Amino acid sequence: MASKSDFMAAEEIKAILHGRDKTEQERILRWVSESIGVTAGATIASSAAVLPSQTAKQPAPLGPAHRKDIKSFVAEKAPKNDVQFAAVAAYFYQFEASEAERKDVIGAEDLQTAARQARGYGFTKPLATLNNAVALGYFDRAGRGEFKLNAVGENLVAMTLPSGDSTGGASQGKRRRRTRVRKKGNKKLKTL
After folding, report:
1. Whether 19 contacts 27, CB under 8 Å
2. Among 102, 155, 164, 168, which is most buried by a count of CB atoms within 10 Å?
3. Which pLDDT belongs to residue 15?
4. pLDDT tens per residue across span 71-95
5. How many CB atoms lie within 10 A of CB 61?
6. What is the CATH number of the domain that holds 121?
7. Given this model, what pLDDT does residue 187 score?
8. End of a domain among 57, 73, 94?
9. Between 190 and 14, the higher pLDDT residue
């Protein structure tokens, strides 16, 4: 199979990204760069070279698309468990928070603060939740007690949550009662 020139590969990428908003383009380029091991600086330079007309025209999004309230962001994403909540909180701090609140890494105290603001209560062991998120592949360790949301975690929040389940949780259907049959002598007794 013949290898395509750099220019042809860049044109294919440009065609794929054409029509998407700047935030999506940057996220896609970041995910691809992380998956192939290219540094972020090279990705930013590449994205400016591939999409010069689009990056120059569009200012950073502000207003309703750029939330500044963690409570509304968590309500929109509807995480189903503590690990998903941790990913949502990290995503909020990294991409959605105001410039003054932005963080690339979070720790147990950051997660605790986010939980209190968004849910009204904190975690018993926030560090255990972050370690579980690392084990599930949503975070990478960024230092002692610091965790960085990786591409898998970003994808969970940006693309997967909410799952479209209007109940915000697992299926809320009626549970069937289990029936147990006991034998007593020759008679069968049903108990619920």
Report:
1. no
2. 155
3. 83
4. 999 999 999 999 999 999 999 999 9
5. 11
6. 1.10.10
7. 60
8. 57
9. 14
